[in-house]
């Protein structure tokens, strides 16, 4: 893990520089530290702002991204999120980050971020990654096998994935061009919807037997 600790600061610095031009609307003030009490602020970009005179260094700080996430789950991966919920000072700044840990053969299943482009830096291990374009470009798959030090970009809104194809744990850091990118995991959304989507409709849409759809809907779809 020493090599991960050595590379991590440089990866984070690169991500900050790459996302200096962010997707979210540009701020009109120096800082806008998010607060939950609406009586103390003004509504801006989805979060209320603290009086800037009351801001403190801790509002712009997060500790622990060097710590491995728990990958003991069905898919063998863990995402440590660092967005406006963890760093209130990110409010209106249009940037966030995540650490992703993968057990051997663990995967971050097909998903999309509706509000952000993502840039991924591999710190340890070997990942098979890719994204699929929209119908307009014939649902073309762009994929690569990434090793330590490699970088890959997932365009905003497109379905993408990562799969650890190695026999050892893998670690990646990603930057996202939104303070709150959101995530939609495709299988969870379709088969884990509450209340469930009509299985006959899904059977026709996915060209499956209705009993297969019902079996999928009966599974436990955890949010990771």
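^ Assign residues to that structure.
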């Amino acid at each position: 893990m020493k090599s991960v600790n050595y590379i991590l600061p440089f990866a984070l610095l690169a991500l900050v520089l790459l996302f200096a031009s962010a997707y979210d609307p540009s701020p009109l003030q120096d800082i806008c530290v998010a607060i939950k009490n609406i009586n103390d602020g003004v509504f801006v970009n989805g979060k209320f702002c603290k009086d800037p005179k009351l801001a403190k260094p801790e509002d712009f700080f997060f500790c622990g991204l060097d710590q491995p996430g728990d990958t003991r789950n069905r898919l063998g991966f863990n995402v440590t999120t660092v967005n406006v919920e963890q760093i209130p000072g990110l409010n209106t700044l249009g940037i966030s980050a995540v650490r992703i840990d993968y057990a051997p053969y663990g995967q971050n299943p097909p998903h999309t971020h509706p509000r952000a482009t993502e840039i991924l830096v591999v710190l340890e291990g070997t990942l098979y990654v890719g994204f699929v374009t929209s119908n307009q470009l014939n649902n073309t798959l762009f994929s690569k096998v990434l090793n330590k030090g490699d970088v890959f970009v997932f365009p905003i809104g497109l379905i993408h994935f990562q799969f650890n194809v190695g026999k050892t744990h893998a670690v990646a850091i990603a930057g996202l061009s939104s303070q709150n990118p959101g995530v939609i995991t495709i299988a969870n959304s379709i088969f884990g919807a509450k209340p469930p989507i009509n299985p006959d409709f899904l059977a026709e849409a996915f060209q499956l037997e209705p009993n297969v759809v019902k079996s999928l809907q009966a599974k436990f779809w955890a949010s990771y």
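Helices lie at 2-18, 186-191, 199-206, 210-217.
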